[in-house]
């Protein structure tokens, strides 16, 4: 019976380790200013490469390369309409990670960050 339990524990530890490694890959994928700008731009809208390029202040070619990586990581997905391709976030998780990273960054530069001051407005979560 001990061996059966140990086998279950080992499998759970392997799964946890796989999930931790995948989480590290997500953070690595988001550890780029252009990709963070892309995720921020896609929080409320589905956008084309050209629009994302304008918002990110990068060339469409550069943004396309970042979007390809974000697609492989399943952070963004696409919709085709004729010859145009529109990008959107695959789910809300990357958006929340980036928002929380922005909030954490605000703490690094301000003792009373803006997101705490805006709480009274009800527009931003803590």
Can you offer a commentary on this structure?
The chain has 3 domains: about 1-30; about 35-90, Winged helix-like DNA-binding domain superfamily/Winged helix DNA-binding domain (Arc Repressor Mutant, subunit A), CATH 1.10.10.10; about 90-125, no CATH class. With about 130 residues, the protein is mainly α. The longest helix has 29 residues, at about 1-30. The protein contains 6 helices and 3 strands. Helices cover about 65% and strands about 10% of the residues. Strand 2 (about 75-80) and strand 3 form a beta hairpin.
Summary, kept brief:
The chain is mainly α and 126 residues long. The protein has helices spanning 2-30, 33-41, 49-56, 60-72, 93-109, 114-117; strands spanning 47-48, 76-81, 84-89.
CATH architecture of the largest domain: Orthogonal Bundle
The outline comes out as flat
Count of runs of 4 or more consecutive helical residues: 6
**Helix content class:** 55-70%
The CATH class assignment of the largest domain is Mainly Alpha
Which class do the helix and strand fractions yield? mainly alpha
- Summed up, the domain count is 3
Name of the CATH homologous superfamily of the largest domain: Winged helix-like DNA-binding domain superfamily/Winged helix DNA-binding domain
Strand content: 5-15%
Question: Describe the biggest sheet?
Answer: 3 strands, antiparallel
Average pLDDT confidence is 87
Compressed to H and E, one letter per element, the order equals: HHEHHEEHH
CATH topology of the largest domain: Arc Repressor Mutant, subunit A
* Terminal residue distance: 47 Å
Number of strands: 3
Rg, rounded, reads: 19 Å
| Low-pLDDT regions | none
- Major β-sheet strand ordering: 1-3-2
